[in-house]
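Translate structure to sequence.
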């Protein structure tokens, strides 16, 4: 009996989505899910040849979904970042691109009935408890199969989905600023780095690019020389933010780690020039151990929240664009390797950020019965 799954593109990621009832036939307890996904993806092989993994951090993702009618959200989902050349599966992070796909999945599979006009799907991330909402166009109650929406980082069209992350923040650590400080000093490989550590969308540590010796005038290189410093910063921040204990090994997926710089002309990953006037701040993030080809949506939310904090690393880089007006939405334009994405930042009457919305696209690629290899020798 195969493992039933649906393959989706959400934004700039590809995700396998699984109904929890199908997963339970192979992994009756939640503790058994990582080993099942590791085997299904062929995670132990760096090329993931004997599984359905895509061989990159942005295409080696999965989510298990439980319908929860009558609850706070329409569904619960467990996001999994599957290892590449490593049979482990990390369940501690979240992925906004995959949440975009989950919203479309929920409408297409009937978890949330299509309404006339727009259908909103409320999704609860099991690990953090954060609630997101994805809004899918369903004119006349029609369930969309395709669309013309595009996002930076992919030339393919898909169904437009508006994805919103809602406060309160600090779902992983208990506070938007886990250390209580807008800026902390990290001691990393013999140098001191100014860092803003936030828990919004996902836990993230954001560094000044010049201090990390990362040149953002071009985003075409693989950052080989800077990777040890960035990975060490993630390990240090994870400890300071309370995401792990001193005796625990550093996690590869959280906190997210990135570098930021003021707006400026730069060369995008495809070789085109992005002009300084098109964005407010430049950002480059890591995805596991490699530079992200665009930016993860949870990272974009973290950047947006950090931009709203006076004197943060991001606010200093964004300059006047970081100012907020109580009760009124504003836009933050983020220059990434794939181009410029826009986050709509919505504040409450007190001026605190209550919601961050991003416009994405998703598409169903395939439905499959996955013949899962034996997982007996794989660790979770």
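Result:
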């Amino acid at each position: 009996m195969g493992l039933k799954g649906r393959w989706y593109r959400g934004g700039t990621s590809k995700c396998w989505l699984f109904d929890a009832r199908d997963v339970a036939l192979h992994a009756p307890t939640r503790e058994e899910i990582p080993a099942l996904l590791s085997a299904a993806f062929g995670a132990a092989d760096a090329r993931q040849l004997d599984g359905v993994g895509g061989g990159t951090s942005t295409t080696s993702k999965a989510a298990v979904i439980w319908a929860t009618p009558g609850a706070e959200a329409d569904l619960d989902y467990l996001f999994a970042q599957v290892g590449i050349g490593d049979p482990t599966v990390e369940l501690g992070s979240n992925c906004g691109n995959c949440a975009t796909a989950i919203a479309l999945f929920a409408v297409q599979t009937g978890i949330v009935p299509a309404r006339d006009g727009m259908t909103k799907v409320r999704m609860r991330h099991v690990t953090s408890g954060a609630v997101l909402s994805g809004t899918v166009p369903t004119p006349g109650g029609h369930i969309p199969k395709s669309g013309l929406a595009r996002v930076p980082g992919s030339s393919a069209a898909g169904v437009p989905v508006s994805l919103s992350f809602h406060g309160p923040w600090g779902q992983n650590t208990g506070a938007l600023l886990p250390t209580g400080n807008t800026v902390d000093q990290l001691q990393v490989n013999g140098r001191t780095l100014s860092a803003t550590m936030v828990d919004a969308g996902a836990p993230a540590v954001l560094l000044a690019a010049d201090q990390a010796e990362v040149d953002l005038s071009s985003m075409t290189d693989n950052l080989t020389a800077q990777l040890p410093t960035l990975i060490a910063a993630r390990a240090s921040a994870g400890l300071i933010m309370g995401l792990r204990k001193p005796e625990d090994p550093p996690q590869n997926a959280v906190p997210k780690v990135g570098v930021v710089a003021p707006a400026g002309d730069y060369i995008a990953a495809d070789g085109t020039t992005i002009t300084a006037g098109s964005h407010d701040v430049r950002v480059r993030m890591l995805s596991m151990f490699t530079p992200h080809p665009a930016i993860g949506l949870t990272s974009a939310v973290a950047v947006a929240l950090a931009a709203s904090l006076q004197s943060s690393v991001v606010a200093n880089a964004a300059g006047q664009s970081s100012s907020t007006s109580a009760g009124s939405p504003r836009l933050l334009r983020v220059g990434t390797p794939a181009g410029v994405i826009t986050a709509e930042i919505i504040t409450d009457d007190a001026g605190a950020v209550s919601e961050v919305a991003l416009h994405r696209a998703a598409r169903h690629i395939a439905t499959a019965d996955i013949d899962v290899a034996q997982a007996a020798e794989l660790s979770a």
